[in-house]
Amino acid sequence: IEKIVEFAVTEKIDYAVVAPDDPLVLGAVDELEAKGIPCFGPKKNAAIIEGSKVFSKNFMKKYNIPTAQYEVFSSVESALEYLETAPIPTVIKADGLALGKGVIIAFTLEEAKNAVKEIMEDKVFGASGNNIVIVKDKTLLDIDTLRKQLNSWINVKDVNAGREWAYTQIKKSQIIAEELLINNVEPEAGVEDFKILCFHGEPKYIIVDKDRYIGHKRNFYDLEWNKIDVTTDYPQFNTPYPKPKNLDKMLEIAKALSSDLPFVRVDLYNIDGQIYFGELTFYPLSGYIKFVPI
After folding, report:
1. How do residues 215-270 score in pLDDT, each as one tens digit?
2. Alpha-carbon span 6 to 81, nearest angstrom
3. Which residues pair with 130 in a beta bridge?
4. How many other CB atoms sit within 10 Å of the CB of residue 226?
5. Residue 288 has what DSSP assignment?
6. E strands within the chain?
7. Bridge partners of 281?
8. Percent of the chain's residues with pLDDT above 70
9. CA distance 91 to 100
10. Is the pLDDT of residue 138 over 60?
């Protein structure tokens, strides 16, 4: 803010339109007007209604402005305890600014618990996760707000959260709606995910993620389907997992998709023998997870 004010004074700016959330919440309007530069935009004490979900929900409650029922938590333990009896699905929001990404819609209890941990422990939204707001009734979610959130993702080139610098080169982003894949045997667990680690166009290792929403577990396998004693951020599952009958086809797809790339993780789904493409991941969890043993 100091640099913005310094620039405005030096360049003799007559009028400033302060639009982005961050400088508004940090008090840019207050500082500019203190230097005699008139502004369009709320002052710091008004911008907090956008900068803090906790403040805005409490404000609406105090003045009887219709809003979904909510609870506020500042500790992981109390939030997780509340979730045990909360209605599902539920909406979990980080308190502060998060570039339109601080809202997680949890369709299962496991998803909700993971969201709390990601926000409050892993700090995926930084200090915005110091407090969270849990909305009890998703049916009261404003569709216009959801549309605004989706639109805010388009063409955002934020590399700070994940250090994924290469995506800054994308010229135009898109939002793609895909068919929902269902685990026909155990729907509440979510579909099983096959992540194939490829180096210079050659598949080397296979990760299997299962029970994603009821107790996420992860195993590593070599190309001959021998289990490898490696763990990351989720525990292993100890029950034998049969080698997919179409594993060779999955490896063939991964090889083709990873051609000419130094590294990529090819994510596939395999439902009733039908292979579905998931995504290509160049930065698995932004490089933050630890492999044990390394």
Report:
1. 889 999 999 999 999 988 788 998 899 999 999 999 999 999 999 899 999 999 99
2. 48
3. none
4. 9
5. -
6. 16-17, 39-40, 70-73, 90-94, 103-106, 132-135, 193-199, 202-210, 217-221, 227-228, 263-271, 274-281
7. 265
8. 76
9. 14
10. no
Contact residues for 271 (Cβ-Cβ < 8 A; gap 6+): 181, 182, 183, 184, 191
Residue 58 confidence (pLDDT): 78
pTM metric for this prediction: 0.53
Please state whether beta strands 39-40 and 16-17 pair in parallel, antiparallel, or not at all (unpaired): parallel
**pLDDT of 285:** 72
Task: Give one DSSP letter per residue of 73-137, joined into a string.
Answer: ESSHHHHHHHHTTS-SSEEEEESS--TT--EEEESSHHHHHHHHHHHHTS-TTGGGGGSEEEES-
SS3 189: helix
Residue with tokens 């388009």: 154
pLDDT of residue 121: 63
Between CA 194 and CA 221 the distance in angstroms is 10
In DSSP terms, which residues pair with 274 in a beta bridge? 271
**Which amino acid is residue 202, in one-letter code?**
E
Structure tokens at 186: 């155990």
